Amino acid sequence: MHKTTDSVITHRTVFFNLILKITAALLVAVTLSFCALMPSSAKAAAINQTVNLANVNKNQRGSGYYWDNINDTLTLNRLNIDTKDDYGLKLPAGATVVLVGDNSISASKAALVTTGTTIFKGNGSLTIVSDGTGVVLSDATVLGKVSFLSGSYKISSGGDGIVSENVRLYISGGKMTINCAPQEAYAIRSRLIELNNTNLTANGALYSAEPMVLNNTGLEITASGIDALQTDTELRITNMALKSGDSAASASAAAENKYTGGAYVFTAPTYVERKYSAVFGGEVPAWVDYIVFAVAIAALAAVIALPLAIRRRKYLKRLEMLKSSK
């Protein structure tokens, strides 16, 4: 009788040990997979010449970048272009650029050139350095637009930071810093400038031929002897508290939040988005969903764990009784 009981106990012990080992192995596998997906901290090997993708028609991979031709997507992962050539990176029309990790492009005339509608996004960063213009937004038509949706961008240029004749510029997220070397340079000179829910710091003026639209954006613009915000048509400022003046020291709150000139502009976003419950709808706050979700997870865990705990407790009690009866 004891031999049979000991055999059962041994098999159950082996079973529990096996479950523990499998669980540990799964945790290790998940951890390794997660680490593999994380971007490497080391930059890719430097590229010392122009990367011209303007007319690309097939998949192309290089050090720190991959062009997916079917989806018109360029992924930059630790890209490092450092060239004395006129241009650093030329993009095709219709491209979507995804930033992963820290990327950099340096060239003599223009570091980055777009040739049509382009979207920039991602959780990474892009540093642009040029002796001339930082970024040139070009398009043979008047239909192109370039959108920066997310990511962090730092532009250092010997001339204007971003230049566009025909392309409309939209910055709707992320963070951008523009440093122009000459005092007379423009941080952005574009056909249209629209900034929404973003942060922009620049030491050159912004010029928009069409209406300039600024909404819920944090700005700090320092120009030299000229107005920081310039447009040939209309300046629209919404959901922002504005201060302006000839310098940061003399800046004061703008009456009725209207910009009337000055080389320095500072704004703070004022709109706070209220999120509502996707479960209950109406005006129920979104945080209620998180509480309901947490309670549901806790209840599910209890339903699964409680029977297992009771069963294990009975097993240990039985095991103790068998040992004491020997």
Instruction: Characterize the overall form.
Output: extended
Question: Unreliable segments (pLDDT under 50, ≥5 consecutive)?
Answer: 1-5, 30-37
> What fraction of the residues are assigned to beta strands by DSSP?
35-45%
Instruction: Report the count of strand segments.
Output: 28
The H/E string reads HEEEEEEEEEEEEEEEEEEEEEEEEEEEEH
Terminal CA distance: 11 Å
Strand order of the largest sheet: 2-3-4-7-10-13-16-19-22-25
What's the helix count? 2
How many structural domains are formed by the residues? 3
Structural class by helix and strand composition: alpha/beta
Residues in helix, %: 10-25%
Radius of gyration based on Cα positions: 29 Å
Major pleated sheet: 10 strands, mixed
Summarize model confidence as the mean pLDDT: 86
Task: Explain how this protein is built.
The protein starts with a helix and ends with a helix. The strands form three sheets. It has a ten-stranded mixed β-sheet with strand order 2-3-4-7-10-13-16-19-22-25, with no helix packed on it. The chain folds into three domains: 1-38; 51-269; 276-326. It has helices at 2-37, 287-325, and strands at residues 51-52, 60-62, 65-68, 73-77, 80-82, 87-90, 95-100, 102-107, 110-114, 118-122, 125-130, 133-137, 145-148, 152-157, 162-164, 168-171, 175-180, 186-190, 192-196, 199-202, 205-208, 212-215, 218-222, 229-231, 235-238, 240-245, 252-253, 264-269. It has 326 residues and is an alpha/beta fold. The protein contains two helices and 28 strands. A hairpin with a 4-residue loop joins strand 3 and strand 4 (73-77).
